[in-house]
Amino acid sequence: MPVPDLEKRLLNALSQKGGASSDFDLNKDVQAPDCKLTPAAVLVAIRAEAETLILTKRSARLKHHPGQIAFPGGKQDPDDRSPQAAALREAHEEIGLPYDIVQVLGNLPSHQTVTGYQVTPVLALVTGDYDPTPEAGEVSEVFEVPLAHFSDPGMYRVEGRRWQGRKRYYYTVPYGPYYVWGATARILRALAERMS
């Protein structure tokens, strides 16, 4: 499919109505804590020619979310001019993504995590070739998944597990050996809803 058509579809998705999401969406009996949230940003990067989404597997040595599937991204530093700048910097640091081959399209609605972050998903096209270089301390693997898999709302399911003494529900969207869940799956589901 031609890249201009993909860009048009993604820009159309960004123009759709829809509010912020949170890790509490499926857990109505749990109140989101009333606290100051830490700003963060992730890069929802789609390789334009292949129509694949770039994801990472976090290092098993990390203190928070070890081994989980995630977007490249992280906390917004004081030097970052915007969430977009933070997402691009983090993607460059974590997977070696060059700034000059990324075309930022816009931001999806923010997502609040149970760990106290207000995450801005930055939707972008990767318009050139590059060989991923995982930052060994943070990323154990960089891989790509067809966008068609994640843009189909029918691929998502709700699962649950015990957390802090109660059952917590969350979205999942597995792909092959990769178990995508939590905030990553919820952000992807928001994109799927806008693309369908």
Features:
196 residues; alpha+beta; 9-stranded mixed beta sheet; two-stranded antiparallel sheet; 4 helices; 22% helix
Verbal overview:
- The protein has helices at 3-15, 83-95, 147-150, 182-195; strands at residues 21-22, 38-47, 52-58, 69-70, 73-75, 102-107, 111-112, 117-126, 139-146, 157-163, 166-172.
- By secondary structure, it is α+β, with helices and mostly antiparallel strands.
- Strands 1, 2, 3, 4, 5, 6, 7, 8 and 9 form a nine-stranded mixed beta sheet that branches. Strands 10-11 form a two-stranded antiparallel sheet.
- A hairpin with a 4-residue loop joins strand 2 and strand 3.
- The longest helix is centred in the C-terminal third of the chain and has 14 residues, at 182-195.
Distance between the terminal alpha carbons, to the nearest Å?
A: 17 Å
Radius of gyration: 16 Å
Number of helices: 4
Beta-strand content: 25-35%
User: Structural class given helices, strands, pairing?
Assistant: alpha+beta
Number of strands: 11
Portion in helices: 10-25%
Which ranges are low-confidence, i.e. pLDDT below 50, for 5 or more consecutive residues?
A: none
Major sheet, described briefly?
Answer: 9 strands, mixed
Output the helix-strand order: HEEEEEHEEEEHEEH
Mean pLDDT: 91
Task: Choose one word for the global shape.
Answer: globular
